[in-house]
Specification:
Elements lengths: L3 H4 L2 H15 L2 E6 L4 E6 L3 H9 L4 H11 L10 E5 L2 E10 L2 E12 L5 H11 L3 H9 L6 H54 L2 H11 L5 H31 L12 H18 L11
Antiparallel strand pairs: 1-2, 1-5, 3-4, 4-5
Helix pairs in contact: 2-7, 5-6, 7-9, 8-9
Length: about 290
């Protein structure tokens, strides 16, 4: 099972939970599969502020979380509504690949008009001063069971959406990491290949230079052809190195003037032998 930290980015979940809580007028909390709270409750309603101040919560909240995380079956787990002394919480299971990975719980809201007996019992249960709890509860309007189920459906949609977006984001990050690895391997391969291709060209150019000093015109011409093609090959290797530097963001432009006559003459000389065998006699005339 994936750890909660991989599924629930608080920076993403908390603002979404706060907006949802403002809509349903309840504090919303996110719990991981281990029943530990991941973020929330948000927004902080007056009654939640009281419970947090005195360090205890109604038992309905823990019961709701356990019920959401304990649900099994192939179908979508039902919305859980738990009550305690007239206050209700609503919870939904968070599903990923058919597994329950967490729960969203919203609370607290009265399901009937508050009575002093129920609030007194809740005050003892949560260690909250009765007068403070009574003042906060009296300002809350009761929510019918049908509306609580609708709140749960909204929490389900929110949870499914955020989990789906989290999966897409993680997939994008993994793909980007793989592409970076491939690019790094490719750059390393090109660097090694360029070095290996460059190494044998050095003695070829050296021996061609020596052969050019011979008196036989054919040998000199052959040496010039060898040297010219070796230089051409060396430039191709330099282009590979330049490509590697470009991918690394280290490209440097070296602007020079190139004689087109020399390039065309070299190309014709490279194919001259094959052309003569086919009775083709290419000629090159220098441009004025």
């Amino acid at each position: 099972m994936e750890p909660s930290g991989d599924l629930f980015d608080v920076a993403v979940w908390q603002p979404a939970l706060e907006k949802c809580g403002a809509v349903i007028q309840m504090s919303v909390s996110l719990f991981g599969a281990d029943e530990e709270i991941v973020c929330g409750p948000v927004p902080i309603t007056p009654i939640v502020a009281l419970f947090e101040k005195h360090g205890l919560e109604p038992a309905a909240s823990a019961e709701c979380v356990r019920a959401c995380l304990a649900q099994l079956g192939d179908s979508r787990p039902p919305i859980v509504v738990a009550t305690s002394s007239g206050l209700a919480v609503v919870g939904v299971s968070l599903l990923l690949d058919g597994r329950i990975v967490g729960a969203l719980v919203g609370g607290y809201t009265p399901i009937t008009f508050c009575e002093s007996v129920g609030i007194s019992r809740l005050a003892r249960e949560t260690g909250t001063p009765f007068q403070d709890l009574w003042a906060a509860a009296r300002n809350m309007s009761p929510v019918p069971a049908r509306r609580l189920v609708q709140h749960g459906e909204l929490l389900q949609v929110l949870g499914d959406t955020l989990l789906r977006e989290n999966r897409l984001r993680r997939h994008s990050e993994e793909t980007a990491a793989q592409l970076t690895t491939v690019a790094t391997v490719k750059e390393g391969f090109l660097a090694v290949l360029s070095h290996e291709l460059r190494t044998p060209l050095t003695p070829i150019l050296g021996w061609a230079s020596i052969l050019k000093q011979q008196s036989d015109p054919k040998v000199v011409h052959a040496a010039e052809v060898i040297e010219r093609n070796a230089v051409f090959q060396l430039r191709m290797v330099e282009d590979l190195l330049e490509l590697t530097r470009t991918m690394q963001g280290k490209l440097l432009l070296n602007l020079t003037v190139v004689s087109l006559n020399d390039q065309v003459r070299a190309s014709l000389e490279a194919v001259a032998d094959g052309a003569l065998k086919k009775n083709i006699a290419p000629q090159f005339i220098d441009a004025p």
